[in-house]
Batch of 3 targets.
Target 1
Amino acid sequence: MLEFCGLVGTLIVDEDGVYDPRLINDRLLLGMKGTLSEMELSVFRQRSIAALRQKARRGELLLTVAIGYVKAEDGQLDKDPDRRVQDGIALVFRKFAELHSIRQVLLWFRQEQVLVPSFRAAASRRLNGRCRSITRCTTC
């Protein structure tokens, strides 16, 4: 990018000053700033990953809440108080115990047009107790 800016004569401005990439000293300074920025980003990323791992070791890492559970105010996971959600999930497990195949369970739900609890992954929580047909993706 610096090469292109130098070729077309573009000046680069930041909070510390104005730089002309055609001048070797400015180019060297911009290169060093870029390298330091890359290093800072790498250190931030490493620290973030380390913090996530520590949280996971303590059992405090919670990325999303599975369907059928809700996050309580104290941070604990509880079963969803909505009886429809509990019954829907129980039905999935009962049918699996009966049919011994998740594909057969899926086909049964489609054939019977049974609605099951669902959530949007982006929201990472159940949406107002709504259910969806299993013929559609239940996480989209």
Target 2
Amino acid sequence: MTVRNLVRGAVAGAGATAVMSVVMLAGQRAGLMPDQPPKRIARAVLPGHRHRPKPGEKALGTIAHFGFGAACGSLLALLRGGRRAPVALGAGYGLAIWLVSYQGWVPGFGILPPISGDRPGRPAVMAAGHVVYGTVLAALLDRLRRGPEREA
């Protein structure tokens, strides 16, 4: 059952990341953030100056973002042990990921400023995106846990 939960979590996490990405792109198009944080994270780990654009950073950022989302989805599925994940739990889980990332390791590595020192707009977009991620993750986990709907 554990492997099944991990796979369900990865699938749900990737799906939730796709929906979250729509929120992030909308925030960028609205001018609330100049570029995508996953791209900035990829830029920082690629060779060269951590704040200068590099070839492949957008693709690597996208792959890493979906990988991280799938891994976080697997973690929640593992923690739930096949039990239902309420939507409120999912929203809180998404916010916890946001706080640990954007108030913790991302500024800790000098990639982006912490939430309190960031440009106006980006924290709101990213918080909303993570709430969306968590709620979609919980809904997808529940759907995958129940299996396909059967017609009568």
Target 3
Amino acid sequence: MSSASSTLPRPPLKVSAGNQIRGHVVTVERGAVNAEVLIDIGGGASMVAIVTDESIDALTLRPGREVYALVQASSVIFTTERMPFVSARNALWGVVDALRTGAVNDEISMRLDAGQRVTATLTHTSVHELGLAPGRRACALIKASSVLLAVPA
């Protein structure tokens, strides 16, 4: 990339990630390569994102900074039972408020206890076996490494 192109103004971005959860950085723990970012998303709920140290600097992430956690719907896993341990760092409980049936997958929308909304795409079989339907309590599981972070420009 030439230096001229790197100084051009960047256009505002729209993203394809269906989940854009607003929050504020609580802590940033740097490691040798990656950092763990704890985000308060309201209502007593939080999310964790794993990003590079370079991203921490580029986004000027620090406690109190407004941030958006971006997650593709295909990266969200649902469960309806409390699990003693699961490797996904983010377990967000709420109530299913919409179900849209597709040709191959279904789209599930859930209002989190924290007030935010999470959408997932699941197979018909998974939706049926979990008994997912509007009004059903469920938990969205999201790996911390599947969370991208964005900040207001």
